[in-house]
């Protein structure tokens, strides 16, 4: 019998039947995964377990088609609150089938991601509908609904939607749910600050994004440190938190840096060099913690920076775009191909330090 004899769904079924405890499930899964000897280790390959076959994709197409039809059907309803409430209820019902009973990875992922926004929109438009007598038209548009619930009501509704999403995660245990809850928590914080001083939130949005990104990154590293071998769903939770943190960190940092440079009258060349420097730093961090999602969010800025340098050299738009794409593609391929040796050399000075308690060892 090989390690392919039992799928993870089989083991999870054994746990639900009381044959295995959750710790035994994780230990057995790690052991079976360890029997594989791939050309690249699972750690460095950064394997994702949110799709396991075309059956998952086929079911997901059906889910998205069904939910899209339900969304367009809402156009015939007099209130968006009823429509989004129906969306949230249907998503929960589908989760019972595809996430809890069938344990299909990709459908579970999609349903978990969609549940929080559907719930929040149902609550916002529901309260707006109750207030429609005082503010006519508040339930018929997004701006009208937000105007009806701004301030403390929006804080409470966002917190309630996040709490309901946490219940959804507690029942279905889909790894991406941790990132969804984290995003809900960030939204609650922004809603609280906006209720206190909306103008200050607008003026300090990049700083808020940076703080949120750092918090998500710290939480992701906490999960990563609990599964350095990257063999359990704890690693999947960390991946989605990194996926959430990366764009917040990259975009907020660049907004702060570029706004400062523009205020100082810096030219395009200096701004492009700053972008490239940030991408280099992101690449080092990504290789160090062995998470490519951190770097992916900065690749677009890498291409923009190359284009800015070429335009400063009076290269035509068509040629500049072509060269930028060639350089960007070459950078991705070279770093991806040399990821393991580069990481080995980068981690060498940190051998035996506390850092190695939080990142996977070099292969």
From TrEMBL:
Keywords: Membrane, Transmembrane, Transmembrane helix
Residue spans crossing the bilayer: 57-74, 80-99, 106-131, 151-169, 176-195, 207-225, 237-257, 269-289, 294-313, 319-340
The protein's name: DUF2157 domain-containing protein
Phylogenetic classification of the source organism: Bacteria, Pseudomonadati, Pseudomonadota, Alphaproteobacteria, Hyphomicrobiales
